[in-house]
Amino acid sequence: MGKINSVSWQARLRFLVLTFLGFAIAMMINFPFWAVAQTPNSNVTNTASNTIDQSPPPIQTPIRPSNGNELRGIWLTNVDSEVLFSTQSLERAIKRLKRLNFNTLYPTVWNRGYTLYPSQVAKDKFGVDVYPISGLQERDMLAETIKFGHEQDFAVIPWFEYGLMTEEGSELMRQHPDWITQRRDGSHLFLHGEKDQHRLAWLNPARPEVQKFLTDLIVEVVTKYDVDGIQLDDHFGMPVELGYDDYTIALYKKDHFGRLPPEDFNDPSWMKWRAKYVTNLMGKISRAVRAIKPNCLVSLSPNPKEFSYKKFLQDWYSWVYLNYIDELIVQVYRDDIDNFTSELSRPELQEIRQKIPVAVGILTGLRVQNVDMRQIKGQVRVAREMNLDGFSFFFYETLGNRDASFETLFFTPAIRPDLRNIASN
């Protein structure tokens, strides 16, 4: 009996030793990866801040560790994309985006001088209530987007893409040519596109009629539709070389004892004087939106701060401190990961994150430009490592047939950050 007990005891001891060794080996194998995944600012050499990693991060790093909120937006456009042009394609796209764990839709509603929804304001002002293309007739694209989006728990924030810009030949420009501002030589067109096919002009933000028209358009959307916010972007400004139209010159002379504006459009005082009209208009829009719907977000997706002001007289940094905007998505469309990281490291972005959510716009492609998935993943990783509030992708059609890759970026759903749910952080 003693021998049998001794053998049994030795067998048990061997079992315990082997179990302990197996557990220790498993911990040694898995612990380094767990540690890297949990530490966004790890000193591992192959991070996105040094190079674009070809594999997805092991787990999703939360934007705000205390609550895991993350803005995951996408712009829905009517250019180089068919997503808005039928009820079926729109519903199918929104269900797809839900499956991929996005949480915010930015559908364009103002493009080339026309609305993409039936607008009484537009009809009263220039006789056309919706963009005259077949895919938008006999339906309300915005109402459909809100319905399908809210059914899938998306925030729906209509995007007034063209801002103060319009296309030459639009009915708006044809009926109101005096609303257009110009350069010192009298020209007003800006040519864009690979064949200069887009001929664009800019509405004058100093004119009361322009201010009222844009404010009325936005108020119409906020009043008529159950939107979660509205968004303006880099086109809500004015190219710095403009402002030499007769109306603006007369206004400047009135404010400056009859003196003409400086010939140099980069003159600091002349820039500041014109920029205040864009700022004043932003204030009017913000106050009008909140008067109707206090919880409606005012979102802005501009270029970086210095470029915005120097090129488009758009002083969005001041707008944050004037409480005109509730959400900032800075467009950082860069191929080079170091340049991308440098833009996100700007002190003003870290500063204003204490006031409002700050996210980054990431380019996922253009009709004439493919963006590699490795670049997209690398930029998402940088945004997370830098603890930004999320990102929005430009634009839907360029997601392509890459669902499996995008699924690796968003393993689980996330709540979009806003002023309310970041206040405790």
UniProtKB/TrEMBL annotation:
The keyword Acetylation does not apply. It comes from Phormidium tenue FACHB-1050. Signal peptide: none annotated. This is Family 10 glycosylhydrolase. Residues 70-374 form the Glycosyl hydrolase-like domain. Keywords: Signal.
